[in-house]
Predict the structure.
Amino acid sequence: MPLVNKSKCVSCKKCVKKCPVDAIEMVKGKAVIEEDKCINCGKCIKICPVKAILKDREVVRFLISSNMNDVKDSLSDSKNKKAKKRVIRSRMRQLKREQQVLRGMMKELKRLKL
C-alpha cells in the first residue's frame, strides 16, 4: 500500500486528480491515502513530481527510519543511562505486543471464508 511522506508533499494535488478510485484526499495541505479505498494501482506514485508517495518496499524502510528517529528523540530527553535503558525496554515491549497482534490478525485473515 502506498504511503505519503508528508514532509516531501508539496500539495500539488496531482495524485488526487489521477486516483481512479478517489482514495486520496488533502488533509491540512498534505495528501492522505485512504487504505480502505486504495486499489494499489500505482498511478499516484508515477504522477507525484517530488516522489512523496512511497512504494511498498520503500514504506518499510521509511517507517523504520521514522520510528528510530522517535526513539532517538526520546533517548535524548532521558537524563542518564538507566533512563535510556528503560525507554528502550519499553519500546521493545510495545513492539512485541504489536507483533503478537499482527500475527494474530494474519492467522484470522487466513481463516476467513469468502
About this structure: Residues 81-111 form the longest helix (31 residues). Residues 78-114 form one domain.
